[in-house]
Structures are given as C-alpha cells and as structure tokens.
Design brief:
11 helices; four-stranded antiparallel beta sheet; alpha+beta
C-alpha cells in the first residue's frame, strides 16, 4: 500500500540516510558485532551528516527540522540495516534529544547540545534498575541534597550506550516518602568521581549495541545538573515515553519489512519438490497473511506518527503501537526463519540475526504486559 506520510523532502533525506548506511554501517557490521559497539568514528560521521541533532535548534548546532517525520525516516533506514544501530542512535536523536531541548536551561543547552549534535557527546538514559524492571516508580537510586549539591547512590542496568556514554540522564529518588512524585532527573558526565561502569552486557541479540550496567557511589553533582524540575522526573519521563514508544514501533516495522522482503525473494528462488517453495500452498497463504499483517500494522503506526506531528498522540495509542508492532514483528520473523529452513538458523543469514534482535522489543520501553495494563486502564478496567 502506498504510504502518504512523506513529502519529496523526506524522500531526499531518506536517500542521504541510505548512503550513510551503505558506506558506514553495512561494510562494518561484522566489526561492530565483534567489538559489541558502534565505534566513535561512525558516531562522528552520523553527526557530520546532521543525523543526531534533527530536532535541536540551529543555534546549538542542530538541524531544527521541527518535523518528526525526519526522525521516522532515519529510524526506518537504520532499522532496515541493523536493529542495533536504530536503538543506539535512536537513544540519541529520538529519546535523549527531547529531554535536552525541552527541559534544560540555556546554560545546559550551550554546554551539551553542540557536541551532542556532532557525536562528540554520546548519551544514554538510565532508568531501569536491577530490581525494578518496568516499574519506574519503584526505583531505589537516591539523590540526597547536600548544600548546593546532590549525592547519588545506586545502580542501573540494561543501559543502551552505557559503556561509551559521555553524558547519562539518571533518574533518582529525591523525596523517598513521595513515591513517583519524588523522582528527579540528573545529568551525570563521564569522569565524575564515583560514577563507574560495569560489564558490557552479553545479550542474545543486537550485539552491535553497547549495553551496560552503571554504578553510582557517592556521586556528587551540582544543582546545575538537574534536568527539568526537582521531584517531577517521573512526570517528565511519562511525558517523553510516547515518542520513545512510537519511535520503537517505527523501527520494529521497518526491521520486519526488510526481512520479509528478503524472505519473499528466498521463497521465489528456493526450490523443493520441483517448484519454488513460495508456490507451495501453505507458504503462499502464509506469506500472504504476513504481508497483510505488516501492512495493517504500518497503517496504524503511520496514523500514530501523524498524531504525534500534531501533538495529539496519547500515551495509550503509543502503548498500542509499541505492543502491536513488537508482537507482529516477532511473529513474522519467526515465520521467516521457518521458511528459510535450516538456513534460517544460521547466523550468516540475516533472518536468523533479525529473529534474535527482535525479541527484546517485547520487553524494553515498557514490557508488553505493561502496555496491556496501560490500555486496560484506559478502558476503565
């Protein structure tokens, strides 16, 4: 189905992203997998192409695109190449960028945003804790006021970009007796005494993305490091989550479409019982079903993108997009592996790697069980 979301400007931008992918990501994929991160040179190239500061005002070195569809194009093309690249770069231009542009002071903007846009500053956001998972309101990391400073103690895990990050947005509890209303966000810079990184986590999929444990032991930060308002961190995070979730949905479907296209090509070429396997009725009917499911999911996500452009995307619809897209993604990719047969279980085939890469999308940005809870509450249940 023809999509009506994009203009010629978006198409031209898509071409430039594809060139970046072809020159910088695809040839280096094996290297990134082996070192379990995307190297800084590639980050700097992404910055020089203007990809990291799409929504950052020009006065701070950004592109001032002011059109979320450019984020969508970038996210789609990265995901078609590598789900890990989409998640690593997406943390920067899709997740952290809104915090640094909408919640920071003028001094903070001038301090961080120029190098954020060039890729000299790689960022991460540290919400999840070893004991908390999706329950952000139950976090245990504390930030205790000490004069004009705060002392942070605690730990975070599953932090994308955590090993390389130069700047980490950390959610910490500043009012222990106020529950979700007692959380504040802090910017912690690399090299701050007491801030350390644990192991680079060994994941089932997306090995190219750098994921880490972070530790904070009597980390002293000045009040000037607070992002947003004191004790309103949970509200800030909830406000930003719809964009994170719709961005995830965008990447999920783009990642899926690339592999489904590859599988269709394989089904036309691979022969068994004297004919292409795609012409066997079971496979033909299955592929027809998968293509339809993906197109239907795409239509819903595109409508959510259109709503976000107008500032009308609700948290509930973002949850629906995140849940449904990850479910469709994992279902389709599982079938793609099956259609490839034994080859689908080999890491040299993109279908196998994509199948492993996709599993986490039902867990991160709020597990799919939490998405159902959000949707169910909206039904008055």
């Amino acid at each position: 189905m023809q999509r009506s979301l994009f203009t010629p400007d978006h198409d031209a931008f898509r071409a430039s992203v594809r060139e970046f992918v072809a020159r910088q990501l695809t040839p280096n994929e094996d290297t990134f997998i082996e070192q379990r991160c995307i190297d800084r040179g590639t980050w700097l190239t992404a910055g020089s192409n203007g990809f990291l500061g799409l929504q950052v005002p020009e006065e701070y070195g950004g592109s001032a695109a002011d059109d979320y569809r450019f984020n969508v194009v970038l996210g789609e093309e990265l995901a078609r190449s590598s789900a890990a690249a989409a998640s690593s770069f997406g943390i920067q231009f899709d997740v952290v960028a809104p915090y640094l542009t909408s919640l920071t002071t003028e001094e903070q903007k001038r301090r961080w945003l120029p190098k954020f846009c060039t890729g000299e500053i790689i960022t991460a956001i540290a919400m999840t804790e070893p004991s908390g998972g999706s329950d952000l309101a139950a976090l245990k990391t504390t930030a205790v006021k000490d004069g004009e400073s705060y002392i942070i103690n605690g730990s975070k895990t599953f932090v994308t970009n955590g090993i390389q990050a130069d700047l980490v947005i950390v959610a910490a509890r500043t009012a222990p007796d106020r529950g979700a209303k007692g959380i504040t966000l802090f910017a912690v810079e690399a090299g701050t005494p007491g801030f350390s990184r644990g192991r680079k986590l060994d994941k089932v999929g997306q090995p190219e993305s750098d994921t880490a444990e972070l530790f904070f032991e009597d980390v002293r930060v000045e009040s000037a490091s607070i992002i947003g308002d004191v004790n309103r961190g949970f509200i800030h995070m909830m406000t930003m989550l719809p964009q994170e979730r719709i961005s995830g949905a965008v990447a999920n479907l783009a990642h899926t479409r690339r592999i489904l296209d590859d599988t269709l090509a394989y089904a036309r070429e691979r022969r068994a019982f004297g004919q292409p396997i795609g012409s066997l009725q079971w496979n033909k009917f299955l592929l027809a079903e998968l293509v339809t499911k993906l197109d239907v999911a795409q239509a819903f996500v595109d409508n959510c993108v259109a709503a976000h452009l107008c500032g009308e995307l609700s948290g509930v619809d973002a949850a629906k997009a995140k849940w449904s897209s990850s479910s469709v993604q994992n279902e389709i990719l599982d079938h793609c592996v099956q259609i490839h047969g034994g080859y689908g279980y080999m890491n040299e085939y993109r279908a196998a790697r994509a199948w492993k890469d996709a599993r986490v999308t039902k867990i991160w940005a709020g597990s799919n069980e939490i998405m159902r809870e959000v949707i169910g509450r909206d039904l008055g249940l």
